[in-house]
Amino acid sequence: MSASQHPQELAEWQALMGHAQRLARADLTQLVAEAGRFERFSAALPGMLLDLSKQRIDADARDALLALARASQLESARELLFAGAHVNATENRPALHTALRAPAARQPEIARAVVGPTLARLEQLVDAIRNGSHTGHTGRAIRDVVHIGIGGSHLGPELAVRALGPVSSGGPRCRFLANVDGAALAAALQDLNPETTAFIVVSKSFATLETRCNADSVRSWFLERVADRDALARHFFAITANTHAAAEFGLPPENLFPMWDWVGGRYSLWSAVGLPIALCAGFARFRDMLRGAHDLDRHFLEAPLERNGPVLMALAGVWNANFLGVGNHAVLPYSQRLQLLPNYLQQLEMESNGKSVHLDGSPVRIHTMPILWGGEGTNGQHAFHQLLHQGTRSFTADFIIDADPADELEMHQRWLLANALAQSQAMLCGQATDDPHRAVSGGKATTTLVLDRLDAYSLGALLALYEHKVFCQGVIWQINSFDQWGVELGKRLATPIFEQLNGTSTAQQDASTRGLVAYIRRRRGRRDR
After folding, report:
1. 477 contacts: CB under 8 Å, gap ≥ 6
2. What is the tens place of the pLDDT at every residue in 32-77?
3. How far is the C-alpha of 197 from the C-alpha of 379, rounded, in Å?
4. How far apart are CA 251 and CA 238, in angstroms?
5. Could you tell me the maximum CA-CA distance found in the chain, to the nearest angstrom?
6. Of 262, 270, 217, 210, whose CA–CA distance to 241 is shortest?
7. Catalytic site residues?
């Protein structure tokens, strides 16, 4: 691919336009009915099965998509990612989240000297808290943990803590505080005993507005109750790159764990940011998560493109978004423990690939990331599935199913699985009837991921699968999947507005914002009188 060529200028891209015209109106049920379809369009991955047989695609279109991947130099980009090249071009740094879960021999030099020692320190702390040798300042065992972060610093850990199920013997309970809303702070601290609670502050800069505001308030809450600043060292831990600010907060060096600029926040749960996962689920299960993710990394790096799960998922997404004009993607986990997966993937996918310029800075003339949303089954069936079945918006969907849930309620699990399969079948086949109010068009393309069992290993593999899907799409769209400059503007604009709400700034605002600030100040003034 020429450095000056954009994706839509490639001959392989143009060839796919013809396939899209041919398949856009094809009967999807007839495509799925072809002999051997399931075997040809499914693939065994570490910890799961990937089924693409309900996608609006045939062998010729799939081959054309694979040709696009090769023309986009995806294979060489994959090698550069794992080698530690500066694939994050706008910030001039590598993206080495894969090194966090790799054996030392497979880690690039930049990671080898720090990842292993950090993991060892993390394990020591986890074991000490779980076995009671690390206690609070009064000698009582730690029973609760409050994790303070936002975005990538909390979405992954909270998802994993919930997904791995009930707290195992010896593990503390974990709460997550992210939103700067005071109601979230109150809920996180409700009924906690400061003598038996630990707090984890996660911020690379130790200056992220929401995290620092919440951390300062939690620190004040704690000191008001224990009246001993030295007690902070028994209860507060930080994961940060700004050790100076953490020390000013009151934390000794032994309570600090590093964050590195070669790991983005939304890829950081594999690092010390995963501390609440290890505390609640146990360090052995955290290692199982790392192992599952690493095995998926190996699959992505070594499997041929034709059988490569992340590549195939990425190509299906490009096909639907760019060639079939689908702008919505629903994530539908049929497991209550994966309730937070859509939230996690919203950040992973939309923050990574919600871009409008190519790597060379030129404007993108094609759509990149579709809107991602979703919710867990079967609750969603009694809410937004009505739109999916009879609405006018186009969409694609991922179903995530746990094939062998470790649960004694066998009838419940069988009904859960039956509903998941029935929903994907209904989206495929629809329903023909003489009553137009009951008709369902069908013909909706979906993907199904069947986890062998929702355990730590398969969860790690699942999250790594989506990470690499995002990377592949970024390569094809020629965008940087590892920066997020778009989130900075709102943060910067909030500071003068905060001061205006307090009456301490005369900064100029647009007429609408100025009017809203004035109205809110009047309302607050009435409340304060």
Report:
1. 7, 318, 353, 355, 358, 364, 366, 368
2. 999 999 999 999 999 999 999 999 999 999 999 999 999 999 999 9
3. 34
4. 8
5. 76
6. 262
7. 351, 382, 491
